[in-house]
Amino acid sequence: RPAAQATTVALAEGDGIGPEITQAVVKVLEAAGAAVKFDPVTVGEACYLDGVSSGIPESAWETIRQHRVLLKGPITTPQGGGYKSLNVTLRKSLGLFANVRPCRAWDPVLPTRHPDMDLIIVRENEEDTYAGIEHRQTTEVTQCLKLISRPACERIARYAFELARAQGRKKVTCMSKDNIMKITDGLFHRVFKEVAAEYPDIEAEHCIIDIGTALLADQPGRFDVILAPNLYGDVLSDVAAQITGSVGLGGSANIGEGCAMFEAVHGSAPDIAGKDMANPSGMLLAACEMLRYLGDAQTAAQIQDAWMVTLEEGVHTGDLYKEGKSREKVGTQAFAERICENLGRKP
Ligand code: NAD
After folding, report:
1. Which of 268, 275, 329 to mutate to test the pocket of ligand 1 (most atoms within 8 A of CB)?
2. How far is the CA of 47 from the centre of ligand 1 (A)?
3. According to the model, what pLDDT value does residue 1 have?
4. Distance between the two ends of the chain, CA-based, in angstroms?
5. What's the whole-model pTM score?
6. Residues in CB range of 290: below 8 A, 6 or more apart
7. Whether 246 contacts 238, CB under 8 Å
8. How far apart are the CA of 213 and the centre of ligand 1, in A?
9. How far apart are CA 228 and CA 225, in angstroms?
10. Which of 243, 260, 284, 298 is the most exposed place for a label (fewest CB within 10 A)?
């Protein structure tokens, strides 16, 4: 799509810190003149409390299905009971089969122990234990089914290799636990090997998930593209985002056929909600991915440059602030305003 033509996307603020970081992100996108218009929808906690059991009212579904692109703040899901995750419902209902989570160190601006880290996690987004097939066999015995299908394995493996090729990446590492789950993870690994054979220009390797996660934490620079089933991919991406300095830095794209949802990696952070403390960077980077998806790569680059200049100036939210290293500790909205002031500048 041509960059000049504004596209309307659905916008869901989400819960907890969601409204604050959404406000900050919209402020930056508007100041940058991004070719996008927002159509707000309400989903999440407020809807559950209103009696909408899925957390997504029919009107919101209509808006999301109409625009086919959603920028979403994090949503609170109760632990160990209560309603089903709305994030899972959205991903499954919209057929968003690939969750793409780029993760790189921003050294020297945000110094890390691993300046060479620059990887993309491709997480299968619809199956695995996230299929939500759970049973209570007796009052004392519970069961969760792990669903892994060949079509989904093929689709996500091919997506990972195509992404690697398109982005000039050299290697795809599949992580699974097929020494234990020989049938389900075994299928994921086997299909990976079959698909890898179609991409001789890209190195393919496999790690068992436990040592793979340990290596990611210790030597993230050895990875390029990581492919994983749903649950492992979720855990890996929080580990990866935290290595770069804060879970608040991670953005993600949920991709389907002609439909996509963009969000931060992190959750609704109820511990800091409403305090103007949250780092909006994860959602901002996700919004930049959305602009690229919509064909407005130029504005995405301009926003990312202004964001980098702001961090370079030592203007940091609390999660990144380091005494003696940062210059100024700012809140969510002030951070966004500083990014707006830096639009047009290059790091
Ligand atoms: P969380 O990511 O919300 O918070 C973990 C820690 O990181 C907290 O200390 C929090 O303050 C901090 N943090 C998170 N985002 C931050 C940011 N932008 N800036 C600064 N600090 C940040 O994880 P959690 O506490 O396990 O989950 C809270 C809720 O979010 C749960 O209901 C969970 O289900 C939900 N959740 C939603 C999504 C999503 O919507 N995609 C993803 C993960 C978790």
Report:
1. 268
2. 20
3. 42
4. 28
5. 0.94
6. 9, 36, 69, 71, 253, 260, 262
7. no
8. 20
9. 10
10. 298
**Sequence-ordered list of residues with C-beta below 8 angstroms from that of 246, at least 6 positions apart, any chain:** 279, 281, 319, 320
Give me 168's structure tokens: 């000039």
Ligand 1 center to residue 13 CA distance, Å? 14
Distance 50 CA to ligand 1 centre (A): 23
Distances (CA, A) of 154 to 128, 164, 169: 14, 15, 19
Q: Give 10-residue mean pLDDT values along the chain (347 residues).
A: 74 97 98 96 89 89 96 90 83 95 92 94 95 90 96 98 97 98 98 98 98 96 98 93 88 95 95 97 97 95 97 95 91 98 96
Joined together, the tokens standing for residue 282 give 């994860």
What residue spans of the chain are helical by DSSP H? 18-31, 45-49, 58-67, 86-93, 150-166, 184-196, 209-218, 230-243, 281-293, 297-312, 332-341
Query: CB under 6 Å to ligand 1: residues?
Result: 17, 74-77, 87, 247-248, 263, 266-272, 278-279, 282, 319
Give the pLDDT score at 2.
44
